[in-house]
Amino acid sequence: MKPTVSRTFTTTASPEAVYDYLADFTNAEEWDPGTVSCARVSGDGGVGTVYRNVSSFLGRTTEITYTTVEAERPTRIHLTGHNEQFDGHDVMGVRASGTGSEVTYTAEFAFKGAARFAVPVVAAYLPVLAKKTVDELRTHLDRLA
């Protein structure tokens, strides 16, 4: 089982502004409640860009290497995250909606080794985390308008 969460919401920011903000994954420090720090290791923000993300999840801190694998301005960003116990996909879709944008954020998690036993706990916590993430993300995106 791969816990997955997907949320769609609107913002007053334009698709281009949303894309530019989300494509710079270092901004996750502002909007992702689980991100402690995020630094660009290499790349220019496009495909192949690598980030070092330190996350705290359910009281545990871990380092995850994220790589941008798709970057289609202004409509789609796809990052993969990996470490010894985790593989993840973060996909962000953006489209025009009225004078702003509609954003769909989908996160998929896969756990390896002993971490796979945490899947039921992670799956139960994801709706809470998703609400916090959307609230923070909308707040920061609306400030771009």
- C-alpha end-to-end distance: 39 Å
Q: What sequence of helices (H) and strands (E) makes up the elements?
A: EHHEEEEEEH
Number of strands: 7
Low-confidence stretches: none
Largest pleated sheet: 7 strands, antiparallel
Shape: globular
Helix content: 25-40%
Number of domains: 1
Please count the helical segments: 3
* CATH fold group: Alpha-D-Glucose-1,6-Bisphosphate, Chain A, domain 4
Structural class comes to: alpha+beta
At the fourth CATH level, what is the homologous superfamily? Answer: START domain
Mean pLDDT: 93
Strand order of the largest sheet: 1-7-6-5-4-3-2
Could you name the CATH class? Alpha Beta
Radius of gyration, in angstroms, nearest whole number: 15 Å
Q: How does CATH name the architecture?
A: 2-Layer Sandwich
Strand content: over 45%
SSE layout and pairing:
Blueprint: E1 4-11, H1 15-23, H2 28-31, E2 35-42, E3 50-57, E4 60-72, E5 76-83, E6 86-97, E7 100-111, H3 119-142
Antiparallel strand pairs: 1-7, 2-3, 3-4, 4-5, 5-6, 6-7
In short:
This protein is an alpha+beta fold and 145 residues long. The protein contains three helices and seven strands. It is 26% helix and 48% strand.
